[in-house]
Write a structure and sequence with these properties.
This protein is mainly alpha-helical. It contains 4 helices and 2 strands.
């Protein structure tokens, strides 16, 4: 597997980088065990969804514990900005 990175750095350098982070492994593992791995949902921000569906999906995802949301863009700046405002109003400032 490490041979796949040899166009950017040597196998020895890759191993050294991994070994250098080994000291903090237990702390990182404990953090993941306590808090889980952060993830975002893509289900809420599809470009073709009507506003009511976006609101419904954001509320559902928030209830499921999501705190990060991905929004599709590309329907034009005005549409993207309006939809971003919609998502922000549903998520709140803490999301």
């Amino acid at each position: 597997i490490l041979e796949d990175v040899s166009d950017e750095l040597s196998v020895e350098a890759a191993v050294a980088m991994l070994e250098a982070t080994d000291a903090g492994r237990a702390v990182r593992a404990e953090h993941i065990a306590r808090h889980g791995i952060a993830a975002y949902t893509t289900a809420t921000g599809w470009a073709g969804y009507p506003d009511a569906k976006v609101r419904e999906l954001v509320k559902k995802a928030t209830a499921e514990g999501f705190t990060a949301f991905k929004m599709k863009v590309g329907l034009g700046a005005q549409s993207d900005m309006r939809r971003a405002s919609l998502l922000r109003s549903e998520i709140g400032e803490s999301g």
